[in-house]
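Let's sit down with a protein and look at its sequence and fold side by side. Please make up or recall a protein chain and show it to me in full. Label the sequence line and the structure token line clearly, so we can match residues to local backbone shapes. Go ahead whenever you are ready, and we will take it from there.
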Amino acid sequence: MYQYLGDRVLLGAGYRLHHQTAVRSWTRALAPERADRDTPRTSDSDLATLWSAQWLASLRLYLRPPSSRRGPQSLSFEYLRYRRSHGLRLDMALAGYAFGF
């Protein structure tokens, strides 16, 4: 969700919850000597059953507002936190500059 505060500040916040079921070929572990070469198998954790949650906070400061005749100009700052049920953790901070013409 985003909310303007005047014509020069835009605040944003978001949340996403995701559930994924494993692909049929996923396995926790498989001994090479017991592997059936005709049956594809993987233990890639990205293909396992998992839950993930993502949070986002953003701030955009307009140096020139979107209604400017010369086009908008802005600085943006974002923070993202991502977590998975199998332990993957990701935190990102982003900064950017944008202009329109």
